[in-house]
Amino acid sequence: MTRALTALSLAVAGAACRPVPAAEFGRQLFNDPRFAESRFNDYSCAICHSVSDAEAEKAYPGHTLYGAAARPSFWGGYQTRLIDAVSFCYVYFMRGPGPLDPDDPKSKALYEYLASLGPAEGAPALPYTVVRDAAGVARGDPARGAQIYDAACRACHGEAHTGGGRLTLEAPVLPEHTADYEHVFHGVAPAVVVVEKVRHGQFFGVGGNMPPFGREMLSDEDLGALLAFFRL
Ligand code: HEC
Ligand code: HEC
Question: For the segment 95-110, what is each residue's pLDDT rounded down to a tens digit?
Answer without folding.
Answer: 999 999 999 999 999 9
